[in-house]
Amino acid sequence: MLLTRRPQPNLVHPSVSGSLIKKPSIITDGLVFYAPLWNELCLGTTFRSLDTFGHLCTVTAATWGSTGRTYDGTDDKIDAGTGASLNLTTAFSIGAWVKPTTLIGDTRYVISKGTEAAYATFAWRLYVQETGEVICLTSNGVDAQTVNATSTNQATINNWYLIFACFDSSVGLYIYVGTPSADPTEWAKDETVVGNVVTNASMNMTIGARKRATDDEFWIGTIGDTWVYNRRLTLAEATHICNATKWRYL
Question: DSSP state, 72?
């Protein structure tokens, strides 16, 4: 029987002149989810993430394009399922290239894990406020023992940002944000040590929406490369990922 290998994400790209130039590869240590939503392998209403786990992703309405999936804020979302490798309780890093075209009117979700019905029913959520602040919140099931990092910086519409929220239960939560023209910097941190995130094996991970009985707070704009790691990335690692992938968003 002929065995086929899962296609790997492109590690080279065309330069301005059209020739191919080798670029830094993305970091694979601890990578448990990778979906370059611009890639033709992520086309269609279902696709498999381009990591060793191949998570089945189900798309609702979000339109495919050369820089990622475009969300119109109505019902667009990607359900990435409940793969065992996404059941992260002691450490994680979640991130994506995002371009908001509207922030007014509601909070806009980038990535969430679980159903936000109560603190025991979600693990983490990464979103952008109506006023542009980037926020990540984790839960271990008790309201008074969550970690909540809110940036003092503000994202603005029609601009690309690489946003990473990086958590370790022993050191806290950090938010790093970069752009195609500027390396990531620390936008926020919460070094409160509260223990592990609630066990989330049965919780779905959603890209571009807050999962509830009736999903809401949908992203408006585009989401490109999307990552989940099972460890806390450093600022230097976030910078490496930014430099390896920003060419698409220049």
Answer: E
